[in-house]
Design a protein that fits this description.
Elements lengths: L4 E8 L3 E8 L3 E7 L5 E2 L8 H12 L9
Antiparallel strand pairs: 1-2, 2-3, 3-4
């Protein structure tokens, strides 16, 4: 099992979690966990946690530091 470091874990409107994480093999990525436990996201890699966070928010259509639209 590979190690993972979580950089951001945000609660998003609509009972979702936005997770930004780092793995040595794939740099930074994001995933969204829905209220039903489904994990969704893209396969892109990002070279900074902020870039992954920005893209995750854009992907969800959310802006701002507090996760509001």
């Amino acid at each position: 099992m590979s190690e993972m470091k979580i950089d951001y874990l945000l609660g998003i409107e609509g009972r979702k979690l936005l997770l930004v994480y780092y793995t040595p093999r794939n740099c930074y990525q994001f995933r969204v966990v829905t209220a039903t436990g489904q994990v969704i996201g893209n396969q892109e890699i990002y070279y900074t946690p902020d870039a992954a966070l920005t893209e995750g928010r854009r992907w969800l259509g959310v802006s701002g530091a507090n996760g509001t639209r």
